[in-house]
Design a protein that fits this description.
binds zinc ion, 9 helices, five-stranded mixed beta sheet, 336 residues, binds 5'-O-[(R)-(carboxyoxy)(hydroxy)phosphoryl]adenosine, alpha/beta
Length: 336
């Protein structure tokens, strides 16, 4: 079954065809217009998706060498609602025109399952750390649609912290790649920064392995500590600040994964989302003794191959959605 996937939840307009043999095409157009504003402007994102969606889809179909897919999948949330709507409505129109099934995909489920697209991808159960610009959550994936949140951030997402620190330092948007590059020249122990531990919250799910949500994360205090250091009398070099900040984020993330491995007894681990492209995080994950699957960097940042893949798995499972399926700004992966 060849599935055309469409992704427009944030600032990437993407289309991809995934079939039984794997990824047949994977086209991503990153919107550059947001750089001058220092962050994604939702209204501009929606307009830019509308400009590019047709040519991006046509390129994905041409590269895959097919004229009509067997089904269409599109991100239906969570994300910027005006942006999601562009891809979702376009995908539903394509499905209606071609007379093929349609399925709306949860963007986070796309990230969560992206490692299973790799030839050496993990079988269920596995732990998946999804670290992006809008989300930071650690899931126990026990089966398709069976995901338990073991930990999440109580404030900023890890990618958001990278973007905010980069902005304070005048490194531009998106901040993650710029901090990653600068950190490579710095000393990660030059600036003493906190590894904040939020207050333990009551469990969200009574069946939770972790129960007390003791693994939750917080990045907003870390960001404030970086600001205080930058405003101090003798701040360290930008390279040292970037390396120290990045080390603190990586320490928190790897600590949670290690503790979740202990608690659940699950040794298979994967990471996904834009921050999973980070050099230091990828290296540190390799030290945990996990059976690790690191998707290539271009499959960590937003792409449509992960949407086509997740949609394809759901379709093969007998699921499909009506063309009245709406967009959702909030949507927990696994929820119907
Ligand atoms: O998954 P993604 O492409 O979009 C969302 O769904 O949010 O993630 C984007 C986030 C941005 O915050 C960006 O700064 C961050 O991922 N990012 C990185 C790196 N590459 C992208 N953060 C740290 N290191 C990187 N190399
Ligand atoms: Zn994403």
């Amino acid at each position: 079954m060849n599935v055309l996937g469409i992704e427009t939840s944030c600032d990437e307009t993407a289309a991809s065809v995934v079939g039984a043999a794997g990824v047949l095409s994977d086209v991503v157009h990153t919107q550059e217009i947001h750089a001058e504003y220092g962050g994604v402007v939702p209204e501009l994102a929606g307009r830019a998706h509308a400009d590019k969606i047709v040519s991006t889809m046509a390129a994905a179909m041409a590269r895959a060498g097919i004229e009509k897919p067997d089904a269409v999948a599109a991100t239906a949330g969570p994300g910027l609602i005006g942006a999601v709507l562009v891809g979702l409505c376009f995908a539903k129109s394509l499905a209606a025109g071609w007379g093929v099934p349609f399925i709306g995909v949860n963007h986070l489920e796309g990230h969560l399952l992206s490692a299973t697209l790799e030839p050496d991808g993990p079988d269920f159960p596995f732990l998946s750390l999804v670290v992006s610009g809008g989300h930071t959550s650690l899931y126990l994936a026990s089966g398709l649609g069976d995901y338990e949140v073991l930990a999440e951030t109580v404030d900023d997402a890890a990618g958001e912290a990278f973007d905010k620190v980069a902005r304070m330092m005048g490194l531009g948007y998106p901040g993650g790649p710029a901090v990653d590059k600068m950190a490579a020249q710095g000393d990660p122990w030059a600036v003493k920064l906190p590894r904040p531990q939020p207050k333990v919250r009551p469990p969200k799910t009574p069946s939770g392995h972790v129960g007390t949500r003791a693994l939750d994360m917080s990045f907003s205090g870390l960001k404030t500590a970086v600001r205080a250091h930058l405003e101090s009398a003798q701040p360290a070099s930008p390279e040292d600040v970037c390396a120290s900040f990045q080390q603190a984020v990586v320490d928190v993330l790897t600590n949670r994964v290690a503790r979740a491995m202990d608690i659940t007894g699950v040794n298979r681990v994967t990471i996904a989302g834009g921050v999973a492209a980070n050099t230091q995080l990828r290296a540190a994950m390799g030290t945990l003794g996990a059976e690790l699957c690191l998707p290539p960097r271009h499959r960590c940042t937003d792409n449509a191959a992960m949407i086509a893949h997740a949609g394809r798995l759901r379709l093969l499972n007998g699921e499909r959605h009506g063309l009245d399926r709406g967009a959702r700004a909030q949507w927990v992966p696994g929820a119907v």
